[in-house]
Design goal:
By secondary structure, the chain is α/β, with parallel strands linked by helices. It is built from six helices and nine strands; from the N terminus they run H-H-H-E-E-H-E-E-E-E-E-H-E-H-E. It has a single domain (13-127, 143-213), classed as Zn peptidases (Aminopeptidase), CATH 3.40.630.10. Helix content is 26%, strand content 15%. A five-stranded mixed sheet has the order 3-4-8-5-9, sandwiched between helices. A two-stranded antiparallel ribbon has the order 1-2. A hairpin with a 2-residue loop joins strand 6 (143-145) and strand 7. The radius of gyration is 18 Å and the shape is globular. It starts with a helix and ends in a 31-residue tail after the last strand.
Length: 244
């Protein structure tokens, strides 16, 4: 694991020499719209449910790692429990299980070493499909309808991860060369107040000068996180998935 930490952050203050303009980026997005949607739908088809104490993120993580390898990024798949100091950390949530397939994925697009680094962070696990009263599409059979992509995880948060992945991929195809390292990660065990995947990735050395988290925020930019308060609330009514 030391090798991961050794690769951590390159940081000085100079920008990349290649900067695609906004028009070129917009045109690239429009030209690849169908491919981007198909890619996102493929990601949604993996039933990567988090059902504490364990989860089924394995196939989705392997697929995502391979997609990153195709772009030439250095990829790493590792168990949260394999990171030294993770399971004994004071912020480690006990009682969770990490079989051999339940691994974090981190991919690094190496910069020139002359700029600050950035991390795009997301999680591959989704909440369970229940209650199974889906109307527009089945949970893991995504459907595009009236400009919206339906399916479990389309909002929280495979849609956001797709946006981050394709933003980086298109910049790379347009010739952008980052001055600092860019890290794209997909962690496991985020749902149900899980944080062990994120903790393990930080302790493994996948850190940066700035982090972007593409959780759904109704398209609002949130420059900081106010933290968390854990408690128990009992609500009576029709079950669903509350967020935002």
């Amino acid at each position: 694991m030391a090798a991961r930490g050794d690769r951590a952050v390159r940081s000085v203050d100079r920008c990349s020499e290649v900067r695609p303009d906004l028009q070129s980026i917009s045109q690239a997005i429009e030209a690849r719209e169908s491919e981007i949607l198909d890619w996102t739908a493929a990601f949604l088809r993996f039933p990567s449910e988090n059902r504490p104490p364990t989860g089924a993120e394995g196939e989705a993580q392997e697929w995502l790692a391979e997609e990153c390898r195709k772009l030439g990024w250095t990829t790493d798949l590792f168990l949260p429990t394999a990171v030294p100091g993770a399971s004994g950390h004071r912020y480690w949530l006990s009682g969770r299980q990490y079989p051999s397939s339940r691994r974090n994925m981190a991919a690094r697009w190496h910069g020139t070493g002359t700029g600050r680094s950035i991390l795009f962070s997301g999680h591959a696990d989704v909440a369970p499909l229940e209650p199974n009263d889906w109307k527009v599409a089945q949970p893991f059979q995504p459907r595009l309808k009236e400009g919206k992509l339906y399916g479990r995880g389309s909002a929280d948060m495979k849609g956001g991860m797709s946006a981050a992945f394709w933003a980086l991929r298109l910049l790379q195809e347009l010739g952008f060369s980052p001055a600092g390292d860019i890290i794209f990660e997909s962690i496991v065990d985020e749902e149900f107040a899980g944080g062990n995947g994120t903790l393990a990735s930080r302790l493994a050395g996948y850190n940066a000068d700035l982090a972007v988290l593409t959780e759904p925020t109704r398209m609002q930019l949130c420059p900081a996180c106010m933290g968390a308060f854990l408690g128990d609330i009992t609500i009576q009514g029709t079950a669903g998935l509350p967020y935002m």
